[in-house]
Model the fold of this input.
Amino acid sequence: MLSATNLGILRGERVLFEGVSLSVAPGEAVILRGANGAGKTTLLRILAGLTRPEAGNVTREATHHWIGHREGLKPHETPRTHLKLWGQAWGAEADIDAVLREMGLSRPADVAGRYLSAGQKRRTALARLMLDNRAIWLLDEPFTALDTEGRDQLLAMVARHRQSGGAVIAAVHGDAGFAASREMGL
Amino acid sequence: MSPKPILSAFRQALSEAWAGGAGALLPLGFFAGAAVLVPLGIGTEPGMLRAVGPGILWVSLALSSLVTLERIFQSDVEDGTLDLWLQAGAPVSAIAAAKTFAHWLTAGLPLALMSPVLALMFQAEASLSLLTGALIYGLGGLAFFFWGGVGAALSATVRRGGLLIALIALPLYVPTAIFGSMAMRGAAFGDTAPLLLAASTLFALAAAPFAMAAALRLAAD
Done:
């Protein structure tokens, strides 16, 4: 579904990583491991097409979702307006109320982003995964700021996504909570 | 390609401008402030005010367009929205143009609409030509906002990038400033000056989005 060969990138004068190859097939999950600054985020950004690698190339055979460590939520947006906006932008017909309920965002659905807690913002970002059915999920530290309930919710979403033939590539610290097809150290 | 992401970007930029409240009014205050202070600075002799008025308004318009541009792309970089727009499946240049146009609607169009009132303060005679003037200010302002948008996109990752935006954008403002003030002085140049101004605005609309797109891709890299 997604494959990358021989990726290499410079950051400043320094080689961040080189010769990195990876691929995912439907139903698989790849977990990226590495110390802080090892280049997990950069690798994910290359896979998403946001950063151009100095060497190697990436082929994506399906559309993807991107959850970065910045949520993409504006201070004036509420979870409801945020999901509505991206639903419209992507031409997705998801039921916003149902998505909000499932993510446990019914109560703060109309609270502006600047008043939301870090966990609520993270849940709003993760709710985008349910707006539109896309085969590849690129997740950068998706569990950050989530409580146990939010964590379980995300794990359930990942399991469902893989069952229906989706693929996940995630950068995770510590216990991922789901069985990875492969772990990759950077 | 679907136009939906472009419409959504436009809508988000509009609602952000409204939510920013005073942010959108800042250029208006700057514009009006300059017009109020200049007569105090150079004296109130009506003939002189009438002579310098259009030029002063034109310069104020150019400078006040720079006041809020800093935020249009920088906030997107900071909150991660830029990453989402870059992956939205629409040409980045169209997204950037939609955002800049929305910004002009909320911060630039009010300047043009207010210009007749300010022109009266400079002893201009009340006539229909004031409305023609508003049209010319609107047209020029659009070019200023698009060139300023290039500066804003280039300095999107720079904190306190306001000065940088001014340095990048001001040389690009020159053609519009020249044709615009020619158009305001009218008679001496006949009908060609407004057409040249319109041409320079069209050029800005056509070229600036691609420069913004390249700069935004670089900002996300």
